[in-house]
Amino acid sequence: MSMHKTGLLHKVVNTRGNAVVEFALVLPILLLVVFGITELGRMIMTTNVLNTASREGARLAAVSAISDSLNVHARVEEVLDAASIEPSSIVVNYDAAAHSVSVRVTTDFEILSKSVLPAVLRGTIELSGQTVFRFEG
């Protein structure tokens, strides 16, 4: 009986480092998931702001004169500045045949978690938002 107790005690002593090893194996995957979700959330937020800015610009363009595109650009930039997003392009198109106006806003989204995420997800991604309204002006 004493041999059985000694074997059980020996087995418990040998498993003490298992938690550290398991944590070391799981930590990189856990960090990848956490930082990946964070970057995905930032990307969705940026896309939402781009869509909002294009909608604001398209609404202003729809009720303004065609020559008023400087105010449309200013309105789009105002919405983007509120979210600290730098646009790479703002394009306003008037389609006389379809009686519509289109505003497209693009930006280069920079991934901030470069050191944690794999090389495939590093760098910049071009995001855009576009809105088409019926021209009323």
Polypeptide structure, described:
The chain is an alpha+beta fold and 137 residues long. The chain has one domain (2-134). It is built from three helices and three strands; from the N terminus they run αααβββ. α2 packs antiparallel against α3. The radius of gyration is 27 Å and the shape is rod-shaped. The relative contact order is 0.17. The mean pLDDT is 86.
List the helices and strands and how they pair.
Layout: H1 2-14, H2 18-63, H3 69-82, E1 89-95, E2 100-110, E3 124-134
Antiparallel strand pairs: 1-2, 2-3
Helix pairs in contact: 2-3
For this entry, give a set of tags:
single chain; 137 residues; alpha+beta; 3-stranded antiparallel sheet; 3 helices; 3 strands
Question: What would a concise description of this structure say?
Answer:
With 137 residues, this protein is α+β, with helices and mostly antiparallel strands. It has one domain (2-134).
Query: What overall form do the CA principal axes indicate?
Result: rod-shaped
Number of domains: 1
Q: What level of helicity do the residues show?
A: 40-55%
Low-confidence stretches: none
The average pLDDT is: 86
Characterize the largest beta sheet: strand count, sense, and whether it forms a barrel. 3 strands, antiparallel
Helix-strand makeup class: alpha+beta
Strand content: 15-25%
Return the string of H and E elements. HHHEEE
Terminal-residue CA separation: 96 Å
